[in-house]
Write a structure and sequence with these properties.
Length: 82
């Protein structure tokens, strides 16, 4: 998959006085079956995760931004194509 096929997806959002709820269904909200879910958290600043490539992979990345935090993601084109 090339970076040109990457896109922003809109997910359902249910809001009420208690807060917001968003859910994801395989093959409905994302265009493939979910086989595995990973959560990255408490990663120290300046550290990185991954650093390897998959030959056949579809990913859906959710980045939550909180006022006191930030999320940076670097995608290497060569990693996606190898």
């Amino acid at each position: 998959m090339s970076l040109s096929k990457c896109k922003i997806m809109n997910l359902p959002k249910i809001s009420d006085a208690r807060g917001n709820l968003t859910f994801i269904r395989s093959n409905k909200h994302i265009p493939f079956e979910i086989k595995r879910v990973y959560y990255f958290y408490d990663v120290p600043g300046g550290e990185s995760r991954g650093g390897h490539a998959h030959k056949n992979l579809e990913q859906f990345i959710i980045a939550a931004l909180v006022v006191s935090m930030s999320f940076w993601m670097t995608v290497l084109k060569e990693a996606l194509l190898s």
